[in-house]
Amino acid sequence: MNLLSFPFFIFLLILTILYFLVPKRFQWWVLLAGSLYFYGCSGPRNLIFIGITALSTYLAARRIESLQLAQKAELAARKKELDRAGKAALKERYARRTRRLLILTLVLNFGLLSYFKYLHFVVAQINHLITTFGGAAIQDTWQLIVPMGISFYTFQTMGYLVDVYWKKVPAEKHFGKMLLFVCFFPQVTQGPISDWSELTGELFTEHDFTYHNFSWGLQRMFWGYFKKMALANALGVFVRHLFAHYSEYTGIAALIGAFLYSIQIYADFSGYMDIVCGFCEVLGIRLTENFERPYFSKSIAEYWRRWHSSLGRWFKTYIYYPIAMAKWNQKLGRYMRDHFGKAFGRALPASVALVAVWLTTGLWHGASWGYIAWGGVNGLFIIFSLWMEPIYEGWKQKLHINESAFWWRLFQVVRTFVLVTLIKVLPEVGGLRKGLGLWKQIFTNHTIPTNMHMLVPLYNRSYIDTVVIILATVLLLCCSLIQRRQPARAWMQKHIPYPLRLVFFAMLIILAVYIGGAYTGLTGGFMYAEF
Amino acid sequence: MDELMEILEEIDPDIDYEKETRLIDGKVLDSFSIVSLVSQISETFDIEIGPQYLIPANFNSAAAMWKMIQEIQDEE
Amino acid sequence: MQNFKQTLRTVICFLIVFSLLNAAIMEIYFNSERRDYQDKNDRAALAGTLDTLVVGASYAKRGIVPAEIDKVLGTSTYNLAHADMTMQARYEMLKIEIARNPVKLAFVEVSMDSLNLKPYDTTREGDLYTLARLESPIERQKYAFTAFAPINYGWLYYQLISRGFTDLKYWTQGDYISDSVSHNRGYAPFNEKKHYKAKLSPQHEYHTQIREQYRYAKNVKYLNKIIELCSKNDIELILIEVPMSEVSIARYANLQEVHDYFAQVASENSIGFLDFNLWKEKTAHLSDLKYHDATHMGDELAPIFTEQFANIVQKYLAGEDVSDLFYPDYDTLCSDRGYAPQQ
Description:
A: mainly alpha
């Protein structure tokens, strides 16, 4: 179901009414029914795959937990008779079984994900190899319809399974609750990726209807629709044109084009988050945030804590820490520390883990060398600054740079934004080669008047739209600046009278329809919905 | 507890570990520091800090960390 | 309860504010005069003086010059046509003008797809224009709800808002009322100086295309209402087909069937029907090279055509038999002009 459509609004309305009419203990049943319906609209066939994920995880988690309890019971019962080695052997026996079950379920679910996402890519690479050696390429005629949100729900559900394995959370006994966790419709398409305790704490508690939630939730939804339709979709037209004809733009013009892409994708993705989180707020459910004014970050590492943070959190919890804390890695770290100093000892295990995190992050974003390169470049920057940190400290002291000075922080923000933009466009132009081509364009031919001249036709094509885009971007910037201290809606409640607030939100909708209406047909749905 | 404070001082001497109670939530310690912190703790106290202990509540203050260390030691 | 009351209050207030803002933006569109069909001020100024009306789609709008009719017949004519005008719109506009003018004569142009536009689908563009020609918000609302189905509401809303903003843009540039409304009593010449460059197709392309045949009930209903309206008000009604280019006449295979249908409607209701595609002297006066495109006359041809048209009408109104000025059927036309005979 398209989020920008009347059927979807009707669906939300009916769901909300039912949610607050039914006895509170049935509220989550309404959510489950709605989510299954919503997911079913994307294609009944897809229900099979999400069902496999939910069922396999449910069964595996319960089995793992019962094995762990059995282990604990047996250990307690035989405490007196076993020595240290005996205890270790017993633990190992159980561990083997739980580990096997865990791995089996992970392979099944990640296997499904990989099949849908990476089959074409893998076949293409194999074909490259084959043809290099003079063989006949495999025919890749498989039509794959990727189940909606498979990247998101697979990761979220596997997170739960690993949490059970690590004994962080108890296994869920009620399959219905498990199923809701997997397919909860506001987040199944594009996230945020929640963790089990956090989400279930919200989903399975009772919620009252409050005016505050209703008002704030709707305000957030309107703002999200505006960001998506008036800003992201409109920018999308400019950006697509620029990417398709990047060889005609050089220097600053090409760089501005890249900046427009940065704004577009932020407005698109965070707009979607606003719609989804805003709706959940109406229901009284808090979803985890995905964005925290990411373009105000002062370093790439910080950027990744503020952009798509639920994904970053997932990678941190399930890939970074396990690898960084692994015994072999820690031994390596100690070795480095003993022979090369504290800095190396700290940096190396982290770097190894980071390489794993960034290659997989790149792969998660897309099945192409462009995305893998993108992941690699991000990782490289982070690893590089990690190793350089002691040296940077030295420079900063020598130059007497005051870390909290405004101009220094501004420099860091601008530098980070430029870097992030350059990295971000790499896979988006249409493949690695084209991405590098755009980079080349940015760094050549710096006659600023000529460059600015190149942008004039874009402005002339639709002057009123350009004005609205600029205003919308300024509005977004102001909103972000306010949010450093308090929620924008609280600020508005304090400083803007009620009638004016009504006018403001009414205008957001009208402008969203006016600007977005022209472009929605062209750009289709949300960008991250391809995942 | 003293050994713990020594390790913490080595990680980042600028932080006041007696007073600070939001080391993780306030983003005072970053993930790189946490990795070396955990590595040092497990080496010094000869314990294994399983993933289930890697939650903010256990690392937000020196006292919380000490409590976690004792918990793990009791289990083993 | 408190929560619910507050929510209701906010929802109602919001809807009021939202409606007012939208109405304001749409009013900019409704009161603009930038487009050639936005002529309600012109018509209001002439109210009470018109005795002849022409209504139809763009073929009439671009092809019939009221001044030429008035020269020949001594009447006071207004061309009510606009592009894509639906049958319903033709009826409504006629009704409005008949109510405030001493109308004695009406021409309804029935060329091309007047009965074949699909209601609530291909008709929506034309009906959008009609909305801008109605005077009061109440009239507009009534028309909007009968001409459009719920499935069109999203599209309609977007169009009205979008046009409102566009006109707002022009207003800020000081160009709200431009001279694109030609003030020619509804006639809007195609003055782009673009000329139809087609030549007569090779013989094997004759009669290869079929004009859309299906006549939708809603359109037929409004044609009948027009006939009834004129009969009730004692108005002489003549159905006309504005002539297409020769290339088009040769190209279509079923023009006879369409002609026969209207001829029957005319004879059943005792009204006139003049099909100017069959006008013998057409090729002498209207060269294909001066057509704007396959079916619309350019600005040089419209006055010429209208003058000849008015002469023929004058004879018709005097009771003369004008049938010898026209071919009896398309087969005769085709064999006379050398197009392969109609199948």
